[in-house]
Design a protein that fits this description.
By secondary structure, this protein is an alpha+beta fold. The protein is built from 17 helices and 13 strands. It folds into 4 domains: 168 residues, no CATH class; 31 residues; 120 residues, CBS-domain, CATH 3.10.580; 87 residues, 2-Layer Sandwich (Uridine Diphospho-n-acetylenolpyruvylglucosamine Reductase, domain 3). The longest helix is centred in the first third of the chain and has 36 residues. The relative contact order is 0.06. It is found in: Cell membrane.
Length: 439
Amino acid sequence: MAIWGSLFNLILVMILVLLNGFFVATEFAIVKVRESRIAQLAAEGNKRAVDVERVLHNLDAYLSACQLGITLASLGLGWLGEPAIAHLLHPVFRYFHLNETVVTSISFIIAFSVITFLHIVLGELAPKTLAIQYSEKVVLAVAKPIQLFYKIMYPFIQMLNWSASRFLALFHISLEPHQEAHTEEEIRILVNESHKSGLIDQTELMLVDNIFDFSETMAREIMVPRTDMVVLNLRDPFDENVKHVQNGRFTRYPVVDGDKDHVVGSLHIKDMLTGLLEGESHDLQTFMRSILTVPETISISRLLTMLQKQRGQMAIIIDEYGGTAGLVTLEDIMEEIVGDIQDEFDDERPEVERSDGMLSLDGRMLLEEVGDYLDIELESSDVDTLAGWIYMQIDHPPRVGDRVKEGMYEFVVGEVDHYRITRVYAKKIGKAEEEISSQ
């Protein structure tokens, strides 16, 4: 009978170890599983996923249930496990005619070690690893049992949660409900980790990064500067404006009255062509449309909304003095999300070119973009572009060959158009033989 009693206790020990593992696996699985994936399965008609949704929607309570289950199983192991194994070991050590005190001590140490090993390996580590690697499968399997346990132990769980909240209240700490939402930085980290794991490609990574940067980018950072604006002038002869359109590569042009500080509207070449074919007067004002005017500090996300509401394609950017700073088109805004959009008329040089171990950079590149590309910090509260930053470092009108050193890089003015820096070369100082393209 004693043997059968010991075997029964051993069976109880293994059941308690498995129960401990069940609650550990449940706890990690419901925390690790993606709620969006469960919602997708539930929408497809998976009944077990519906059970999981109920658990996830009351996550804190079910985590408390898991903790209670782990505690009860661990207490049971301590109560039954050590005596059961020690009882089996006693006859073995008595065979060697050892002192009863020695037999009891050795049996206790071995029994305690065995129970600890089983508890840690089979009751903690193995279930945890399984739940983390196969969280979806595990959570679908345990949802029903944990719901049943929660219903049975509901009064005790509520009492324990209430006691915990009262205790924390003594220290002026309130229990906040579980939040599934992630901050922008957390989402960026998750996306980067997914990219490293091969779950998303480089294009998808770029799109996510660009979308987060979208609301922080101001119109002045992406605008076509005033000096590069191609405009039609009401004070010029009509034929001269037509030549500008013929020689140009755009479908829309700002219309000014005298100079670029007096933008009075925009012109779509389709309107002009249609009007000319229908014999309308040769007057730009006949074909003009209104144009949106916004300050240079407006975010491009807000500007996009304004253009959508007005069904516009172009906006004039005004500086703090009321003058024209530049213009932004809908294409410029979309390029901030999807990257460069080239059409059959675009013949612009790439922003970045590689040649002879150096980088050739467009002077209009934003300092933030240059810094990210070269992994250095280029900051200025007064200017946004690389050309503007170099201009501030020199004390004379820019000339080809002017040099500015910053960190591990030397920037050399490569091309100048009047007083405007259009191209800049960047190379690592002291490492001319090292190809920057290896970055």
